[in-house]
Amino acid sequence: MHKSKAAFTLIELLVVIAIIAILAAMLLPALARAKAAAYATQCMSNNKQLDLAWFMYAGDNSDTLAFNPDQSVTSLPTPPWVAGIMTWYATGNSDNTNTLNLTDPTKSSMAGYTAQQPKIYHCPSDPYLSPAQRSMGWPGRVRSVAMNAAVGGGNPVSGPGYKPAANLAGDFPHPMFYAVKLNQIVTPGPSDSWVFTDEHPDSIDDAILYTSPMFTNGIGILPEFPSSSHKSASGLAFADGHSEIHKWRDSRTVLPVQYTPGVPQNQTVMVGAPNLDLAWLALHTPFQ
Question: Rounded to two decimals, what is the model's pTM?
Answer without folding.
Answer: 0.88
